[in-house]
């Protein structure tokens, strides 16, 4: 008899059973969702060796999950209590986008909310939420220019002006049409090839909107669920500055939205931007990258750049967010100060179209190329083919 056979017999006789281990794991609740990790699809595998040692692999909902140590020790303690267990090792992995969507769908299960098409599993629309800590750093300018540049590249693009108090997107994009209603769907106007919806289209004149959290949430839900967007390649959400209610609503309504952080090169602005970005860790959203805006003014009389707002903010934010999230957050580009960009915004003609080769126009087009060119939805999705065995 070989040693291995003896071991197997010993396990069969004395070792812990997989059922007992899984029952122990069912007593471990995810610290944030407060449901057993077995129900949340977080147990990747359970391995039991002949000597009674147990290896458990656990999926975290996001990379750099702040709860990783806590989950490891809770799993270890629960499994150690099972009779016959001589040791426990815990290996951590991270859920794919698809697994996270399934988890979110199962958590939403039973509720009769209208569906947001972009949050559905299998949606091929990339959703970017443009965020910043401070106001006035250029979020809306970046949003409309990226949208217009992607549309000019042939992509189907939509923009939601989610800055309900300070809506400025329709003007910057030159969208002066009103939305029309068909049955219970709202048809968004479009301008410069971009479909756009904004609360500004529903209020008479320039009337300010005074709403509290729940109404903001409902407005955003309508924009996402009741507006007929058709098949979009990219949806951009222009968020209000800071880390308020709308950022949380976006995370709830479109959990797969990726955050694009805009900052100026200034140190103080960068620190605030980093805080705005790190909310993504709590809402389990991915940060696609950082855009540094107003980074230098090309001197009109020489070749030098004048660093009006200091330097290095974009890199500072990207490094800080990389540390917080445990992923690599890139600086996607730097946009210089350019009077043509401001004029384009005031006139409703984005600089990427009116002056595509200006320094700001080409910087924005390069960022749009990076974001628009990314494929979405293929990782973690079944291609309906079976790989051939390698061996
Ligand atoms: N790179 C730039 N060069 C010149 N002007 C710029 C640049 N970026 C933004 N601006 C101008 O700065 C002002 C603020 O920009 P914008 O409205 O896009 O910022 P925001 O972050 O959306 O502001 P808010 O927080 O109020 O929503 C606008 O007048 C805009 O035209
Ligand atoms: Mg804005």
UniProtKB/TrEMBL annotation:
Q: Which Pfam families match?
A: FeS_assembly_P, ParA
MIP18 family-like domain location, by residue?
Answer: 18-90
Q: Give the coiled coil ranges.
A: none
Q: What is this protein called?
A: Iron-sulfur cluster carrier protein
Q: What does this chain do?
A: Binds and transfers iron-sulfur (Fe-S) clusters to target apoproteins. Can hydrolyze ATP.
- Keyword set, alphabetical order: ATP-binding, Hydrolase, Iron, Iron-sulfur, Metal-binding, Nucleotide-binding
Tell me which SUPFAM superfamilies the record gives. Fe-S cluster assembly (FSCA) domain-like (SSF117916), P-loop containing nucleoside triphosphate hydrolases (SSF52540)
State the oligomer form and interacting partners. Answer: Homodimer.
| GO terms assigned for molecular function | 4 iron, 4 sulfur cluster binding; ATP binding; ATP hydrolysis activity; ATP-dependent FeS chaperone activity; metal ion binding
Family per record: In the N-terminal section; belongs to the MIP18 family.
Q: Does the keyword Iron-sulfur apply?
A: yes
GO BP terms, alphabetized: iron-sulfur cluster assembly
Q: Does the keyword Iron-sulfur apply?
A: yes
Binding residues for ATP, per the UniProt record?
133-140
